[in-house]
Amino acid sequence: MNDTIILLDEMGNEKEFQVLATFGLNEMDYAALLPLDDINELTYILRIEYDDQGQPILVGIDDDEELEYVVEVYEEIRKEKLQ
Known about the structure:
Blueprint: E1 4-8, E2 14-25, E3 28-35, E4 44-50, E5 56-59, H1 64-82
Antiparallel strand pairs: 1-2, 2-3, 3-4, 4-5
């Protein structure tokens, strides 16, 4: 997957990300994103929600248990792709 997207940071600055993966888990969708301006930065994992028109919205994951579980699943997906 070589898709890139531009998101706004907390200061309103544009930041470009490579979409590493999208995946479903427990009836929710998630996206793993890598910032293109600093490849040493960590991968972001965000929940994909949908607005009233069905357009995707990326949302941070506030629940620590959910985030931990999603990170574990994403790491398994990465390992499977490398094999």
